[in-house]
User: What shape does this take?
Amino acid sequence: MILLWGVPGDPPLDAVHRALLRRGAPTLLIDQRRAEGTTLTIEVERRLSGTLCVGMRSVPLEEISGFYLRPQDGAALGPTVRGAAEGAGRVGAALDDMLLVVAELTPAVVLNRPDAMASNSSKPYQYSPIRSVGFAVPDTVITTSPDAAREFVARHGSVIYKSVSGVRSIVGELREVDTARLSEVRWCPTQLQERIAGIDVRVHVVGEELFACEVRCEAVDYRYAHRTGHRVTLSRCQLPDDCAERCIALARATRLPLAGIDLRRTEEGAWYCFEINPSPGFTYYQHATGAPIDAAIAKLLATSRPTRG
Amino acid sequence: MTFAAGPGKRTVLLASAADEVALGLPARLSRPDIVVVTPADLSQPGWYFRPGAGGSAIVAEGQVLGSEQIAAVVTRLPWVSESELPQIVPADRAYVAAEMHAFLVAWLSELACPVANRPSPNCLCGPFWRHERWVAEAARAGLVVVRARRSVDAHGAQDAQDAQGAPARLQRVISITVVGKRCFGEGDEALREHALSLARATGVETLTVHFGDAGAGLRFLTANPWPCLEDDEVASALLDHLVAPTGAGR
Assistant: This one.
């Protein structure tokens, strides 16, 4: 049995669900908005055991062979989405927490384990494994020192700023007018990075499979290009073998069998890596390029052997 | 790993501004080399970190301290919470707290000096595991455990442990704090060895392990990687484990 957990209507969740049904794989969808119709009992000694009931369907946890997670922030779902009944939000939060335990401890293939996904909450924490597999990382400073920030800008000329955490993660270019605001960095460690010119490449790693997508866009952060009126063009591309090997190695090093890796290729042929996303919204790239990422995820979920237990 | 303190080096104790135990530690132990850093210090100009490039600087007690001047770090702060940041306007507190936490995770992970404990992405003090994960890890490390059991249905959530471990039935609870290879607290040699095994398996410098007895002997209940500084002997042992007095490297 393959579990899917999230909110129906979320494109990646829907796409993986459809791909699993096309394969004829047995699936059980846990709708995060309907916690009241779900019961879960877990027991842990050396191994995880217990029972999950969704509506009229009941599954022993030992029979779970795959688990695809796309949970939304429970607080953001709100009581009206969770259900009108009193206490529904509390039940939903408890169920969310217990499903994370299942995701941590089941020997099934899990895309991805919560403790591995947590690396996304600190971008510079990811730089170490990124470097360890041979990718370049742009020169970076995180500082509360206005003088150090100004010195960094003076050294590199073209600099971008972006959040250190996964919150408000929009990349911006530091413009002349912004330099007057560098004194504000004293209030909070602020991340500045040399701007690397080149072509963006988004790579989705699914087990041992790779799907690379070239992104051509004039905006600093193509994900938000619509806000600045820029056009984005996506096309499938092939990675050089050594770059592809690094992507696979990075997914392994970070224990993320499903990953979205953000690369940039310079004119000189150097490959920079900015981050590795543990819950990639792959459908944006799949729709534009036709890459069968959903089918690859479904295959990984349906055919992998247990990995822990 | 133990470093010699070296002249002028400081031990950084990262803690909440509400952590009286941490704030009072330098005076309690007469250790002027200990400097307490709280989240509010991250709003002082002077912090500097270049990931992967080596070298960083922090601000402690109003002074900039280069990483080469830091002998060790003890982290009593699991995360940066909004309530620690009165200097930030309310609308930005959640964001700034997340940024400071993310910064500290990366900085503590790369520091060359000893750190107790090294952070995980969601906890600055070490692994942030739910109770069930601790039970599973303890069982894998060879400890006899009290089975964890939890359920949720439309009526709500229920925490329960197996009848032998239900808190109301416990006749005795003991705690052993591991510091490096030493153990503090009650417990016979076998329990101490179990506590050490779990600390080794977890990869932490310090860990407090709790055992409970409901009549069938002491079994693992849970564990906590938060450095225990309440007891002077344990606190001193942790500091000595991380930073040997000059010339006393082990």
Notes: The mean pLDDT of chain B is 90.
